[in-house]
Amino acid sequence: MSDELKKLLNGKRFILASSSPRREEILKKAGIKFEILFPEDIEEKNISNDPVSHVLELSRKKAESIARRVDGSLILGADTIVVLNQEILGKPDDSGEAFKMLKKLSGKEHQVYTGISLVDKGEGKTLSGYQLTKVKFNQLTDKQIKDYIDTGEPLDKAGAYGIQGMGNFLVEKIEGDLDNVIGLPLKKLEELLRKIRS
Q1: In the chain, fewer beta carbons within 10 Å around the N or the C end?
Q2: What is the pLDDT of residues 16-75, one digit of tens each?
Q3: For the whole model, what pTM was predicted?
Q4: Are the C-beta atoms of residues 55 and 77 closer than 8 Å to each other?
Q5: Domain-wise residue ranges, the chain
Q6: 80 or 45: whose pLDDT is higher?
Q7: Is the dihedral of CA 173, 165, 190, 76 positive or negative?
Q8: Is 41 exposed, middle or buried (0-12, 13-18, 19+ CB in 10 A)?
Q9: CA distance to 12, 74, 197, per residue, from 125 (Å)
């Protein structure tokens, strides 16, 4: 897939509009040449109660905030949320909120949505799409949750966990794309690149 992505990018200046080290890592592993620019402060709460609208709008806002600052580039914005029983769980504000989130997720299945948006500045095109993955958590003890929070890992992540890090012990099974849970579904990126370059 990474060869296909490189072919689709075709040497074009490609910018990741994100401060997420996980997204950076996914693109690096795929061997894609890219730059990183951080979007301006974008309010991430109270966007929409609908998970799909929420991630599509936020990913687009992130990409557009960079598009205003650069010329002739292809900009990628992304946003990931965790949803449990229709409730959107974003990044926790503190360790107390992280504990509540992980306690809620314990033993249950939830959904992870990632919205991605591409802005082709040269062509004046914008395209967005999203990916959904189902994740089932193990039953967790309060001690396991507290010990995990003490690592500091949950505090900058949607739903207060990172599946690719120390948090992988939380997860019993996943249905769908692992990259999506980490924060950047490459299959969806390839699909959008095909459409925006056509």
Answers
A1: C
A2: 999 899 999 999 999 999 999 999 878 777 678 899 999 999 999 999 999 999 998 999
A3: 0.93
A4: no
A5: 2-197
A6: 80
A7: positive
A8: exposed
A9: 15, 10, 9
Mean predicted confidence (pLDDT) in 123-140: 97
Tokens 């769980």 appear where? 89
Residue 38 dihedral angles phi and psi, to the nearest 5°: -85, 130
- Looking at the predicted structure, is the pLDDT value of residue 1 above 90? no
| The two three-digit tokens of residue 3, written as one number | 């060869």
Element (H, E) at 109: strand 109-120
Chain-centre distance for alpha carbon 57: 13
CATH of 2-197, one of 3.30.1360.70, 3.30.420.40, 1.10.260.40, 3.90.950.10: 3.90.950.10
What are the start-end ranges of the H helices in 36-168?
51-67, 95-105, 142-150
Question: Residue 6 contacts by C-beta under 8 Å, 6 or more apart in sequence?
Answer: 31, 32, 33
CA distance 111 to 51: 10
d(CA 177, CA 184): 10
Cα–Cα dist 45/90, whole Å: 8
Which residues are designated catalytic?
79
